[in-house]
Write a structure and sequence with these properties.
Blueprint: H1 2-23, E1 29-30, E2 35-36, H2 45-50, H3 52-63, H4 68-81, E3 86-87, E4 90-92, E5 98-100, H5 109-130, E6 135-140, H6 143-146, H7 162-170, E7 177-179, H8 181-184, H9 202-215, E8 227-235, H10 238-243, E9 250-256, E10 262-266, E11 271-273, H11 279-283, E12 299-304, E13 311-316, E14 333-337, H12 346-352, E15 358-364, H13 365-370, H14 381-387, H15 392-400
Parallel strand pairs: 6-7, 6-15, 13-14, 13-15
Antiparallel strand pairs: 1-2, 3-4, 4-5, 8-9, 10-11, 10-12, 12-14
Helix pairs in contact: 5-7, 12-14
InterPro entries: DHHW
Pfam families: DHHW
Protein name: DHHW protein
Length: about 425
């Protein structure tokens, strides 16, 4: 009887999981993997003949397998226990850090050339019109360029900072193009990046803010002047979703001096708030980074209590979201534009906001290298001058044309 026991147990497990997969309703989205799951495909003669039905059905069985998330976690833990240092392009680092792996093969050189050209031209045009000291570009490095002390192995000597030098070589005002790797490397033993996500923490953003203030002849408030509040202590982000390696959960923290008074308007009234922080939104999502300004958004207007008539245009990706709150006392208005989520061109933005006095471009290095929307920065000096002197009737016409300018855009980050 014993020799049949293992066979019986095996068959019970197989049939049990098959029945479980059939009975349990299909999930549409995996919070753990941050992706949509394959649904049961509809069968048709053409799909069977072409083979697409079989492929989709195989993917469906894989995605909807009973207790899939638990099995994925068990497999990742086994991989880690056997000494594997990289899973699904994520390095398993020291102190529970999961670090995205990058290679020069990941980037299209022609796209990078165009991005560098368009960004450099935009910076020069804005500097000519607004003044050199009023236009800044700050590049945020990824963990792989800063946290080398957390890596026990590095398959390729990758250096993302080279793209910053390419931008500097094309602009007239090189001192205003800042590589924040130089600042953050000095703080690599501090909690400046999330362990399980690709973003920097609010502390990392604070050190960037110090550098920004120094560049503008100001001194940032000391760290001790901020009240730090841990809003979430259960964050598992993108690098965890890619690797599934169990690590210590991250804390998401806000910094406040208590004097921030703001009004937030996202996508022309799509959402509004009197706070930088969207705790309820983040609480409903596994992406706790949505605490900062909610989801990725094409345009956000921030009106502050500052009375200096300084208006800052920020062209950004999601790394800037936890940085912007530090600027609440520096500018009376901040216009945040994420080119990936809006169809607006730069001349439209300057036409709508002719009062812009300062420009900040803030991008993660790797996101910039891959971004296919940098072409929207194209604008000549004549176009900028003309945009800032258009009549109110023209402004109204342009604003009316924005009715669907944020529609049909997909999430990228």
């Amino acid at each position: 009887m014993r020799k049949y026991l293992s066979v019986i147990v095996f068959l019970c497990v197989i049939f049990g999981f098959t029945i479980g997969s059939a009975v349990v309703p299909s999930k549409k989205f995996s919070e753990m993997e941050k992706r949509n799951l394959q649904q049961k495909p509809k069968v048709s003669v053409s799909s069977v003949v072409k083979g697409s039905y079989q492929k989709k059905y195989e993917k469906y069985l894989s995605d909807q397998f009973f207790l899939r998330d638990k099995w994925v976690n068990i497999y990742a833990q086994l991989e880690k226990n056997t000494g594997k240092k990289e899973i699904n392009n994520v390095y398993i680092g020291k102190d529970d850090y999961l670090i995205e792996k990058y290679s020069e093969r990941d980037f299209d050189d022609e796209l990078q050339k165009m991005n560098v050209k368009n960004l450099a031209s935009f910076l020069d045009v804005c500097s000519e019109e607004l003044g050199k000291s009023n236009v800044t570009c700050m590049f945020v490095p990824s963990k792989i360029d800063v946290l080398r002390n957390k890596l026990s192995v590095l398959e390729e000597d990758y250096d993302g900072s080279k793209i910053v030098e390419r931008v500097r070589s094309k602009v007239k005002n090189k001192d205003r193009v800042v590589n924040l790797a130089d600042v953050l490397k000095k703080r690599s033993n501090e909690y400046i990046y999330y362990r399980s996500d690709h973003h920097w923490t609010t502390l990392g953003a604070y050190y960037a803010y110090q550098e920004y203030e120094k560049l503008n002849g100001r001194t940032a408030p000391a760290l001790k002047e901020y009240k730090q509040k841990v809003v979430f202590d259960d964050f598992l982000g993108t690098t965890y979703s890619k690797s599934h390696v169990p690590v210590k959960k991250d804390e998401v923290t806000t910094f406040s001096r208590g004097d921030e008074k703001v009004s937030i308007n996202g996508n022309n009234g799509e959402f509004t708030s009197n706070s930088f922080y969207f705790e309820d939104v983040a609480k409903k999502s596994s992406d706790r980074y949505q605490l900062f300004f909610s989801k990725n958004t094409g345009k956000i207007e921030v009106t502050t209590s500052a009375k200096n008539n300084k208006v800052l245009l920020v062209l950004k990706d999601s790394y800037a979201n936890c940085f912007i709150p530090f600027l609440s006392n520096e500018y009376s208005k901040i216009i945040m534009i994420d080119c990936r989520y809006t169809k607006m061109k730069m001349k439209q933005i300057f036409r709508q906001y002719p009062e812009i006095t300062n420009v900040l471009v803030m991008y993660n290095i790797e996101k910039f290298r891959k971004d296919t929307h940098i072409s929207s920065l194209q604008m000549s000096l004549d176009e900028l001058k003309a945009a800032r002197t258009k009549t109110n009737d023209k402004d109204k016409k342009d604003k009316d044309s924005e009715e669907d300018i944020f529609s049909g855009l997909v999430s990228l980050d």
